[in-house]
Design a protein that fits this description.
Blueprint: E1 3-5, E2 8-9, E3 22-23, E4 28-30, E5 49-55, E6 60-63, E7 68-77, E8 81-86, E9 89-90, E10 97-102, E11 105-110, E12 119-127, E13 130-141
Parallel strand pairs: 6-13
Antiparallel strand pairs: 1-4, 2-3, 5-7, 7-11, 8-9, 8-12, 10-11, 12-13
């Protein structure tokens, strides 16, 4: 029950048995009563997620005139859009700042900061599922 068969038939008479068998063209299918195969439904996993900071920004102190960097790490799918902030204002294309993004690690490089570059810095990550924000304080020390 539940198998398929193909038959080979040899003929036999007074002269002997045939050399080659006759093979059936169609298979014989004997179904099992009451049993049918129902494969489980495959449900694709949804990998989308809202942005989340794995490593937040930390408060820093830097010496005026020496380049410093702020680092954090974010994850989210689809890839979040990142905006760097200084005192809740977007930094934009200021040439003193260089923002980099590699494999979820975000870096804001501040070139030769002066005393006016101190304040609260933030990083906002936004995608279609939500947004996340991390902030830190940057203190610029003037050498004596």
């Amino acid at each position: 029950m539940g198998n398929q068969y193909r038959f080979r038939v040899f003929s036999e008479n007074l002269v002997g048995v045939s050399e080659n068998p006759g093979v059936s063209q169609n298979t014989a299918d004997i179904p099992k009563a009451g049993l049918t195969l129902k494969p489980p439904q495959f449900q694709e996993h949804d990998f989308r997620s809202a942005p989340q900071f794995l490593t937040p920004l930390v408060d820093r102190s830097a010496v005026a005139g020496y380049t410093t960097a702020l680092n954090c790490a974010v994850r989210g799918h689809p890839k979040p859009k990142v905006v760097w902030l200084k005192n809740q204002m977007a930094i934009g294309d200021d040439p003193r700042f260089l923002a980099r993004h590699s494999q979820g690690v975000l870096t804001l490089q501040i070139r030769k900061p002066g005393p006016f570059d101190g304040g609260t810095y933030g990083c906002r990550a936004v995608n279609e599922l939500g947004e996340a924000l991390t902030e830190c304080r940057l203190e610029i020390r003037v050498p004596q």
